[in-house]
Amino acid sequence: MRCPKCGCSDDKVIDSRSVKDGYGVRRRRECIQCNYRFTTLESVSPEELKVIKLDGTREEFDLAKLRRGIDRACYKRNVSSAEIDRMAGEISSSIQQDFDKEVPSAEIGSRVMTALRKVDEVAFVRFASVYRKFTDAADFIQEIKELKK
Hints:
Strand content: 15-25%
Strand order of the largest sheet: 1-2-3
Shape: elongated
Number of strands: 6
Radius of gyration: 22 Å
Largest sheet: 3 strands, antiparallel
Structural class: alpha+beta
Distance between the termini: 59 Å
Helix content: 40-55%
Number of helices: 5
Number of domains: 2
């Protein structure tokens, strides 16, 4: 690791701590040449997961995009930002565990709907209306009847 102050590549580790629930390491280092102290973070780089869209195209899995979708469904609902982050994180983790290289977009949508159903029914119906491409009020009524069962 190069010192950010002098560029020397000789340093010593002063302290190491586990971060991100054990998925990373924070190291406090000291440059041997100039005694400058700096911090480095080390974590596992996950494999690049691709999302297979309905039209067959592939794109990178994007946690921020997943969070935005959940956030839009929860707009002006009593769902905290922390709860939205928790749902997005849990969905992302479960997808990373269950799929190695590619995941169908339908699977992601299904998992979001399952999570929203437990948290807020209105947010669930909002998301379902976009995900399932509702075309008229009858689609909403049918979904609400299914929700109440």
